[in-house]
Specification:
3-stranded antiparallel beta sheet, 8-stranded antiparallel beta sheet, 13 strands, 165 residues
């Protein structure tokens, strides 16, 4: 049964990347969620009520993500001869610096970073994720979880590993 105040999430894309940047590992997690509301009610999700947990088995220092924000798909718009600003491309999802507001179906994204010390460890083939946003007027979060599978070495400079759903 769908969450009363939170939408059904039919499509999830997560990618988790590790960049080797001396003296730290730079972990980057990107996620896209397609939101399909179960009612016409407006849904507000404050960022302080969003939790992202990641478990990379066998690592001594686990990445942790403290500042999670959810945003609609954004595009750069020219506002002057040499100035740009980011603007939402969604007609149904808006965000502020503290919350996302959902009025209908659409795509939301998050991108968060974490740094850990570089340690010589064998990187695992899988990692587990759990994203738990808790909407306003709700007593429990809507949980999206799954397994990220490691793919070949990354495609960007300094990218040591990549895991995807």
């Amino acid at each position: 049964m769908p969450h009363r105040f939170f939408p059904v999430i039919p499509g999830v894309r997560f990618s988790f990347l590790l960049y080797e940047q001396c003296p730290f590992n730079d972990w980057l997690l990107k996620a896209s969620l397609y939101i399909l509301p179960t009612s016409l009610a407006r849904i507000g999700i404050p960022f302080h009520r969003c939790v992202l947990e990641l478990d990379v088995p066998g690592l001594r220092f686990q990445p942790s993500f403290a500042e999670l924000s959810l945003k609609p798909l954004m595009d750069c718009v020219l506002i002057g001869s040499d100035r740009y600003k980011e603007e939402s491309t969604s007609l149904t999802i808006k965000s502020t610096s503290t919350e996302v507001i959902i009025d209908g179906p659409g795509l939301i994204r998050t991108e968060v970073r974490s740094c850990t010390p570089i340690v010589s460890e064998t990187l695992p083939n899988t990692a587990l994720f759990k994203l738990s946003p808790e909407p306003n007027h709700s007593a429990k979060p809507a949980v999206v979880s799954g397994v990220l599978n490691r793919v070949d070495r990354g495609i960007y400079p300094n990218e040591a590993a990549r895991w995807i759903v």
